[in-house]
Structures are given as structure tokens and as C-alpha cells.
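Recap slide: 12454_t:CDS:1, sequence and predicted structure.
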Amino acid sequence: MSYISPEPRIMGSKFSKFHISLETRDIDNFFKDLPASKWSLGTYVNGIIEGPDSDLTFDQLLTNFIESFEHIKKLLSIPLSIFHF
């Protein structure tokens, strides 16, 4: 029987409550609305599926999630503990 580990999350850090600025462009609102401790693919996908605009495929959601993370990594204001996450 294989074991699937949970997604990594930022916990117990002074940056666990970090939010992306609302003015930041090219980053999904998920990362602006929730603190860094809640960022995970599962939370992202579930939030979209439960919303009114759930016509995206999983591949589209995954692409949006990854692209947002790539944009986050380019921000100069991002704490290093989140950048290396």
C-alpha cells in the first residue's frame, strides 16, 4: 500500500500570515485573499470547484496555479522563506 504525503505548507512561521498585495498583477486572487499558510493546490482547486465559475479543467487550474507561483517568485517583496517554498 502506498502512502501519499500531504502537500507542503508554510506553518509556524512569522510569514504564515503573509498575503500578496491586492495591487499585484498576473497572480490569481487566491494568493491575495488567503494567507500563505493556506496556499495549496487542493485548497485552490476546491475553491474554484465550489465557486460559480467552475468550468475549468484540472489541467487549466494546475497551469493557473503554477503560473501564479512563478510570478510570485519574481516579486521583490516576497519573504525568502516563501520564495524557497
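Residues 29-83 form one domain.
DSSP finds four helices and no strands in the chain.
(End of recap.)
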